[in-house]
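Appendix C: a fully annotated inverse folding record. The material below is reproduced so that readers can follow the format used throughout the book. The structure is listed first as tokens, followed by the designed sequence.
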């Protein structure tokens, strides 16, 4: 006669054979319950540049710009979005809701340029 622990172990082994993906499931991973959650993307402002300079996202996804320079910057797409001043060490987030290509600059340092593509 098998013990309860042995029966449970055998049941788990059989379940793993019948449902191989069940053994590797982890919430928040591909195939998990949060697979439909919009992604979050990062752009680092450092050395008077946006990195990456061009970013492509899907509608509904979030972009977070983080300022690593020791002085403020902006993320400004004329008539579309404007972060206003992002302090040194600060960040600003934007949810991309409308498809299109958005060229942006830092109004404090107009030589800084970036592109956000929203699909």
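Designed amino acids, in order:
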């Amino acid at each position: 006669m098998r013990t309860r622990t042995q029966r449970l172990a055998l049941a788990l082994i059989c379940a793993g054979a019948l449902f191989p993906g069940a053994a590797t499931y982890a919430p928040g991973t591909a195939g998990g319950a949060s697979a439909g959650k919009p992604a979050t993307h990062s752009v680092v402002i450092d050395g008077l540049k946006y990195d990456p300079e061009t970013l492509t996202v899907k509608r509904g996804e979030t972009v977070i710009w983080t300022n690593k320079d020791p002085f403020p910057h902006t993320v400004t797409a004329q008539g579309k979005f404007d972060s206003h001043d992002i302090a040194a060490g600060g960040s600003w987030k934007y949810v991309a809701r409308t498809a299109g290509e958005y060229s942006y600059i830092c109004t404090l340092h107009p030589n800084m340029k970036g592109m956000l593509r929203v699909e």
